[in-house]
Amino acid sequence: MGLVEKIDRETSGETHATSSDELVTGSADEPIGSASEPMAKVRPEEAAGALLARARVFGALFGDQSAVGKFGRFSVVNHLGSGGMGVVYEAYDPDLARGVALKLVNVASKDREAALAEAQALARLSHPNVVPIFDVGLDGELVYLVMELVRGKTLRDWPEGRGLREILAVYNQAGLALAAAHDARLVHRDFKPDNAIVGGDGRVRVVDFGLACEADDPSRAASEPRRAAGTPRFMAPEIKAGAAITPAADQYSFCVALAESLQLARESTPRWVAAVIERGRAANAAERFGSMSELLRALARDPARTRRRITLVGGFAATVSALAFFVGRHTPGEAPDLCNDGAAQLEAVWSPAERSAALDRVATLGAYGRSLRPLLERRLEAHAGRWTRENRAACVDLHRRSETDTMSDRRRTCLDRGRDALAAVGKLIGEARPDTLAALPLAVQSMPDPADCSDRNALSSDIAPPSPALREPVAQLRRQITQADILVGTGRYEQALAETRAAVDQARTLGYSPALAEALLVQGHAQMLTDLAAAVPILAEATQVAMAARADALAVEAWARRAYALGTTTDPDGALGGLEVIEPLAQRTPAATFARALLHNNLGSVALARSREDDARRYFEIALKEAQLASGGGALELSGIRKNLALVTPDRLAADKLLSDVVVELTGRLGPEHPYVLEAQWMRVAVVTEDLRRADESLAPLCRVYERYPTLTTEIALCWAELGFVRWDLGRRDGALDAMARAVNAPDDVPEAAPYLSLLRGDARAAVRQFTQAIEKVALQPREPWWVQRSRALLMLGLGRALREMGDLRGARQALERSIADYDAVVRQHPATSYERRLGRARVELAFTLAQMNVRSAGRTEAVVAGLAWLLRVHGTWTEILKLLRVA
């Protein structure tokens, strides 16, 4: 029984069915649920709403003005909608520190645990076009789901006045969400225009998986009927008949919805689109497309574009010749039998038995290994399924001669690369050790997306194929490059460098420049992650070779990586040389989707290094839009764009949403305790969390999890040091001492931690000596990077505190004023909470110092006011607040 059959949707009206004979009740636009439950005396949404009503009274009595009520930890802000068995509210979640959509669902007590388990399963469905579920749980009689709060228009309202291509583009996003659900063996069962939202960022989110269920075996016996559930007008005939429910049911709903949206937009439907819609909503499920992905490919095949491409690559005469050859050699009925070897091809490089044994071995490598096994298995199965479908589609198109030989070759090369990547990942999983476990989900995510192999626009290029004599040597070389690329994605940079050096040498010998450009690019990427400066000449050559070979997407990526390497180290101004050539190249190259996003992200990073935060923000915003179109391993790397944008976003709520989205995305891709997820959680504390107590509560467990990864030496030290500062600000000197000692004892300690530890231990004299020595290494320089300013500001703050303890008030004042000046400059460019915490502390210390010196000046008043404002903002200790008030 699916969650569907126990919970209802966010629509109004009475939508229950009364018996198994009476199939549906309600209007054609209202979803229906189970026919097995009798009508309750109190409607379930009223039961859910009653709890909130009572909470609203308590909120009024006890002065919670931030919300209309409380439900558990949630502050309820506004009612969004209700349905037969549930109610949805806009709420604030203090744990996530963000606004959310809170759905409360009432189910019979006997089904509560099953409903919770199914809701938790839905929460594991992670895709950019599926509204994410952050949390699920039980509270009394209710199951609650915490979801992303999306503001935008539904596909019911959005299409009016839009063009055909715009509508097909947004429906493509919705279809990708359904395909992802199908890969996870889920069927939505209630897709309709109301259940897809086009957000303000242009991204479509499919919502309301309340009726989702596991796909049935198509051979489900007639004696085991499913109870009807869904919205009648969009419901597939087999659902109404109680037959087996398969992903084909979502195709039917999708095509009915698309037809309505085109009608609403008053768009005339081209014949080829109408043909796709009619097939997708065929009464017989067997007559629909083989998968949602196949349907989306059919919608992407605009005949007008195809004709233009054929004209460009070969002309009408060549097309006629190819068709004549096809008629002489093949018949349409041959293709399906010849194209079912995808599973066998994958088995040849990594058999199911080998995969299962490797995953079983991973599960023996500790608790983290056990948690990884199911995640890896799901990802590998989904990848294999997509690759097999794309392989069959390419084979069928080849035998039907529906595209040029050149395009067929490019699709084959793309698929071979995906198969080679799977083999490389299989080898890494088979060799896994406890200290390399974190690399495994990265390896899986680094595999190219098989769907890219059907993107004709992306595959179109002017790159000359290798000669027949070079075809096999180049194929072998590319396998080696793919292996190295996977190694880069998993953090094995030295091994990747060794592989790519050999590949570069081999490519030079072969004389095939596109492969040389590929090898140089991967070598430069690996080198960046060990020595940025050393990567610059490698990436410069990769750019030149790629441009000469007309491998434009490679050229853009290589230039973007070179710009980052140069711009964040020795020459931020010189890093942009050649941008006037690269930027137009990126815009006109269909295959440069990933490269365009990377280019603008790296331009933003260079702007940040040049202290041009407005330019950086603009570039990061462009990069984020481009990244939404990227897929495969590139999508994982591009998740960093949101983190970068958060660093330059002054609005803390907006910055927190960006980082929260990163946490959700990476958790779905890599698991909740992966180092990348921890880094994003760390950034939320460091960049946006102002409340000192919340920072303490978040950092303490995070630092302990970090310590499970001995290789994350810098992260461990930074985490404990930040916790030490936070606890010191809270007046918890013993806790601060313990945290700072852990930072100093970390394998890769933070240089500033040792003198602060001396100060916490009460040895101000030793602290002054240590601070002074460290400051001499970061003396004031012209045009110094902002991070040097930040480091000096932290040291000057510590020196000022130590000198005040020793009684040198004049020296303390000078050090603290220098710290404030440096931190002021840093915070204006990089408004991170951790830097603001240090700036606030410096102002408090200066206020106390000026009071001890008995200085009566505007400067003292300014320091006191600024210190008080900071303490109140971060919920500092009342002891310090009262002390500051006394010296005001």
Set out the fold topology.
Elements: H1 44-61, E1 69-71, E2 74-82, E3 86-93, E4 98-106, H2 112-123, E5 133-139, E6 142-148, E7 152-154, H3 164-183, E8 186-187, E9 196-199, E10 204-206, E11 213-214, H4 237-240, H5 248-264, H6 271-280, H7 292-300, H8 303-313, H9 315-329, H10 334-338, H11 342-349, H12 352-363, H13 366-399, H14 405-430, H15 439-446, H16 456-459, H17 471-489, H18 493-510, H19 513-528, H20 532-548, H21 552-567, H22 579-588, H23 593-609, H24 613-627, H25 633-638, H26 640-647, H27 652-670, H28 675-688, H29 692-706, H30 713-729, H31 733-745, H32 753-760, H33 764-776, H34 786-806, H35 809-829, H36 833-852, H37 858-873, H38 878-887
Helix pairs in contact: 3-5, 3-7, 5-6, 12-13, 13-14, 13-15, 14-15, 14-17, 15-17, 17-18, 17-19, 18-19, 19-20, 19-21, 20-21, 21-22, 21-23, 23-24, 24-26, 26-27, 27-28, 28-29, 29-30, 30-31, 30-36, 31-32, 32-33, 33-34, 34-35, 34-36, 35-36, 36-37, 37-38
Would you give an account of this structure?
- Helix 5 (248-264) packs antiparallel against helix 6, helix 13 (366-399) runs antiparallel to helix 14 (405-430) and helix 31 (733-745) runs antiparallel to helix 32 (753-760).
- The protein has a six-stranded antiparallel β-sheet, with helices on both faces. It has a three-stranded antiparallel β-sheet with strand order 7-9-10. Strands 8-11 form a two-stranded antiparallel sheet.
- Residues 1-28, 30-68, 219-223 and 306-336 have low confidence and may be disordered.
- Among the domains are: 3-148, Phosphorylase Kinase, domain 1; 154-302, Transferase(Phosphotransferase) domain 1 (Transferase(Phosphotransferase), domain 1, Orthogonal Bundle), CATH 1.10.510; 303-451, no CATH class; 767-888.
- The longest helix is centred in the middle third of the chain and has 34 residues, at 366-399.
- It is globular and about 90 Å long.
- The termini are far apart.
- 61% of the residues lie in helices and 6% in strands.
- By secondary structure, the protein is an alpha+beta fold.
- The protein is built from 38 helices and eleven strands.
